Amino acid sequence: MRKIKTIFLALCLSIMASAQTALSDAIDDARFSVEAGTTINNGATPLWLAANKYGAVGIQNNNAWLRAAIFRPAEADSNYNWRIGYGFDLIGGTQLTRKWSGWIQQAFIDIELKKVRLSIGAKERRMELKDQELSSGSQTFGINARPIPQVRIEIPGYILFSRNLPWLSIKGHFGYGMMMDGSWQKYYLKNDQHYTLQALLHTKALYLKLGNEQHFPLSFETGLEMATIFGGKVKNAMNIEGYNFTMSHNLKSFLKAIYSGGSDPTDDKYANAEGNTLGSFLFSLRYQAPSWYIRGYMDHFFEDHSQLFVQYGWKDYLLGIEVGLPKNRIISKVVYEYIKTDYQSGPVYHDHTASIPDQISGMDNYYNHVIYQGWQNFGQAIGNPLFISPLYNNSRELYFTGNRFRAHHLGITSNPIKKLHLRVLYTHEKNWGTYNLPYLHGSKNLNSFLLEGSYKFDKEPLKEFCITAALGLDCGTQIGKNRGFQLKLSKIF
């Protein structure tokens, strides 16, 4: 018994010493960043001047912001089993109102033991299996809206599933969080619109990788991303003023959110899944040559079991191809995507009843929900921004009026000279509205263009400063004609 106690004490001291060393380094390796920016528009902010920036840039006419942050990635402790990372990011600006206001964009701490991480707080996270600069965005876990505070257990990078299977790797996460925009919804929406206070969020994802580029140039990745909004205090449910109730948020509800079980109070006798459940199946096939690569990928979105279990076929999807070219001064990388969301399991929906037992699970109504304000945070789509933000409508509603569309998207980057980086985006979208509220004249269209250049100075007195200038343009009947210029100055210390 004494020997066991001695071993246990030695183990505890070893862990404490390792953690103390990592904590000391965590203070020393912090990086600071500052940023100032402004957008000057004729109309609303053009789509690609605001989209896929984690909700940091406002949509209304003319806006500005100041930003200051301190960060330290957990990866900086690569020499230790225990790793500590953290971040605090504060923004002040005119993002959602005409008045100047401030908000905490990020506040998190990451504690990592070997390859497993506990992440607590709101953090800007990267998309999976898509290019961060050029893709139109992931349909489930995108980079378009403000980060949502969560507690997550995650494997952030691929690890071998087994030493006996060196060609199979896994990563993923499992977490719970809380939506923080309930009070803002109450302020923004018209009096009879439904909103939810203190709604909860469950997210999970698992990704598998087959292949090892060090031994063979071809690799395949696949993943499943899922999210459920549940719980909370529902106000004006079904847009009936005064129809209020509290959604279940006990232990059973937390468990049901994992497998999309339970029911909502509005379901009556014949229940659907509790809360707002959605997700994506992801696929990617990549060929890596010595100086270039090509990758094809697919993102299939689902809002209910009919698309999750292939009940009506996968007729909606995001298909993409990404090409990284050999080093040159003209084009560095090209991305093309085709996005189709107009099927949504068909135009008919009927829940089984005693008199008509047949179930027809159509009209999936992507990103919208009868109880919650859909897959959005502070008015911006959490997933792909081609589900145009309701804020563009100026209607004081948070309903995605155009979720049935087909779009072509092209992105190009270039590095013509040292320290200068160029980015070009162009999107054409044809939109039919929703099944419930189709557009009166058949369809609306959108053409959005972005030209952006970033230059990083390498000489004093501006060394390490980066200046970014961008020109954005929208035309068509979807969100009208918008022209804008954006200027940003930033530095990392």
UniProtKB/TrEMBL annotation:
Q: Give the signal sequence positions.
A: 1-21
The lineage's top-level taxon is Bacteria
Q: Does the keyword Flavoprotein apply?
A: no
Q: Which UniProt keywords apply?
A: Signal
The entry's protein name is Capsule assembly Wzi family protein
- Origin species: Alloprevotella rava
